[in-house]
Amino acid sequence: MEAGAGAAAGFPDSEYTEKGVTIVGSRAEVFAQADIVLQVRSPGANPDGGAADLALMRPGQVVIGFGEPLTAQEAARGLAERGVSFLAMELMPRITRAQSMDALSSMATIAGYKAALLGADSLPRMFPMLMTAAGTVSPARVLVIGAGVAGLQAIATARRLGAVVSGYDIRAAVKEQIESLGARFVVLAIEAGGAEEKGGYAKAMGEDFYRRQRELLGDVLAEQNVVITTAAVPGRKAPVLVTSEMAMRMAPGSVIVDIAAERGGNCELTKPGEAIEVNGIKIIGPLNLPSTIPYHASQMYAKNIATFLKYLIKDGKLQLDCEDEIVRETLVTHGGEVVHPRVLEIVNAIQS
Ligand code: NAD
Asked: How many angstroms does the Cα of residue 147 sit away from the middle of ligand 1?
């Protein structure tokens, strides 16, 4: 392990050496010595596109980590050229036997929790209803748009803090999940049949659909104190669901927490990585929320990636058996080539 790799997350080197880990002085040494490298951010998910790490990699090496394989084509080509077998955690199939390896869900859980806290912290009101000698405090109204893993956790957290919560998603299947958390499911008069793909992800819809959705959401939004947006479509820019005009219909002091900021944002006003204020409305566009709760983000990620590694090792050797759905779906590069059909399609489309 690279010296100090866990320190900022609350895990000193001593905790690793106690378990028998060899600590090496530099990142370069880790790459030089390891047959398999486990990372948080692999090339593609690194700000420099992974150039520094790519230079350290060698043919036959196996790298496992987050690598934004559906958007970072340069990195995919770079990994193939280095002869590396890269397995992307983002591509873990959403099937029951892979659940304990699903790092996207782990990170989304943390992001959703933190989004609700950011909303509560930035709002000039309290979340719960309180009956005090100084009068009754009315509860905050929170709307969560997009009720996937992050959205459901944001709903649960806002409920625990006592807010009156509503949830909306394009996938009607989430109605029961939202209601089981004590929130109201928002129904819009819009036909969204077939909005769900295999694996539970949302499909990209046409611009007409999104326009109608925005029109209908405007009225719901105007009644909220906090709006948390989490809507995403894998491999695409996030759909714009909150226009500037819609945001301006909210009462002064209201807050929008847009955790789709990493994919451009669900709110037109969002500035990724910034918290801004427009006409008294705060718009927060946080990036990499899991890194703000590093202890549990590390613990959960470690469990996901270790389970995956153990799964790949059979009879003491790492086996990349492409007959296996989990391997086939996550393997991006192998034998000097991009081998993942969806990634290859994107790489080829850009080259032609
Ligand atoms: P995600 O991060 O890709 O998207 C977040 C949410 O945004 C989704 O619920 C999506 O439907 C919603 N969304 C997209 N476009 C929208 C729009 N225009 N308006 C409103 N909402 C919109 O999704 P995710 O959190 O990764 O989860 C997606 C699904 O996968 C969920 O059903 C989840 O339960 C399922 N899942 C299954 C497993 C498993 O079976 N192992 C594991 C994790 C998640």
From this structure: 7
What is the band of 180 on the pLDDT scale with cuts at 50, 70, 90? very high
What's the pLDDT band for 172 if we cut at 50, 70, 90? confident
Residue 324 known to be catalytic: no
CB-based burial, 254-263: b 16+ in 10 Å, e otherwise? bbbbbbbbbb
Strands, DSSP E only, in the chain? 36-41, 62-66, 85-88, 130-132, 135-137, 141-145, 164-168, 184-185, 226-229, 255-258, 275-278, 281-284, 313-314, 317-318, 331-334, 337-338
Hey, what amino acid is at 255?
A: V
Of 53, 102, 169, 258, the catalytic one is 102
What's residue 19's pLDDT? Answer: 95
Cβ(189)–Cβ(209) below 8 Å:
no
Rounded to the nearest angstrom, the distance between the alpha carbon of 52 and the centre of ligand 1 is 33
**pLDDT value at residue 205:** 85
How far apart (Å, rounded) are the C-alpha atoms in residues 53 and 333? 16
pLDDT at 195: 74
Of all protein residues, whose CA lies closest to atom 1 belonging to ligand 1?
232
| Coarse DSSP helix, strand, coil percentages of the chain, rounded to the nearest 5 percent | 40, 20, 40
Atom of ligand 1 nearest to the CA of 232: 4
* pLDDT of 101: 98
165: its two tokens: 């919560």
Tell me the CB-side half-sphere exposure of residue 128, using CA atoms within 13 A. 7
145: Cβ below 6 Å to ligand 1? yes
* Residue 335 DSSP code: T
Residue type, 115: A
Point out the catalytic residue in the list 201, 236, 249, 311.
201
Decide whether any atom of ligand 1 lies within 6 Å of the 167 Cβ. Answer: no
User: In whole numbers, what is the pLDDT of the chain averaged over residues?
Assistant: 94
Whole-prediction pTM: 0.94
Under the phi-then-psi rule, with left for phi > 0, alpha for psi from -120 to 50, and beta for the rest, what region is 125?
Answer: beta
Q: Is 301 a catalytic residue?
A: no
